[in-house]
Amino acid sequence: MINIYYSAFNHPTEDDFSWMYENPVPLFKDKIKDKKKDRKTDMPGFDECTAFQDLGTHTYVIRNPIQTHFEVPADMYLPNEETPIKFTSKNSIYAGIRRDDTLTNQTIFDYHMPHIFFADKSVDLTLTSPYFHKTTYTDYGAIVPARYDIGSWFRPLRFEINLWEDNNIFKIEEDEPLAYVNFNTQEKIKLQRFHLTEKLFNIASSCAESSAWWRGIPLSKRYAKFHASNSQKKVLDEIKLNIV
Asked: Where are the beta strands (DSSP E) in the chain?
């Protein structure tokens, strides 16, 4: 058994939007609810394939809470928190340009629904766009994928979306799958929600911001520092005091 803890990543002294975050659901459970009841053959379905069962039970679906449509003006100025994205839907999740484009003619933006995960054992988390659900937003762009050890590093998981080439429009619908998070383990997962305290926020922020002043350092070296400073125990102890 591996305990994986998660929370919305909002500053503890600001408005608490964690009530907007639904609990992630295993991909296997989410898809099998639509299982066909009148199959005509005795051939097993993919739900009986152990390869899918293993992947599907260790991959969780994060859904989008609010319809969000916007356009990025062609004459936008340099990246900052006030970049003038033009929202075209009645309601929306905040989105902002936090960095310059990485790829030519492909705008990258932060879709502001940051999560944070931490485990009581070493386990890699992999973030991807949904690949087994029909979605609207992947017509416009995709989440920048990522992988890191959530038992050895405590940092927010941001959903940065890279728009396709020469596209400045983004649309995502309410309840649409936003992302998949896969936990690379064979062990059974117990997912538990916690409240993010100011102490935890400060530790996570320092890990996330370390790339700005400790550049070009491999994750393995960051993990070693994290463990050598006993930070894993410090984070786990604080999380366990704040289980929801």
From this structure: 2-8, 25-26, 59-63, 68-71, 86-87, 95-96, 108-119, 124-128, 141-143, 146-149, 156-163, 169-172, 177-183, 189-193
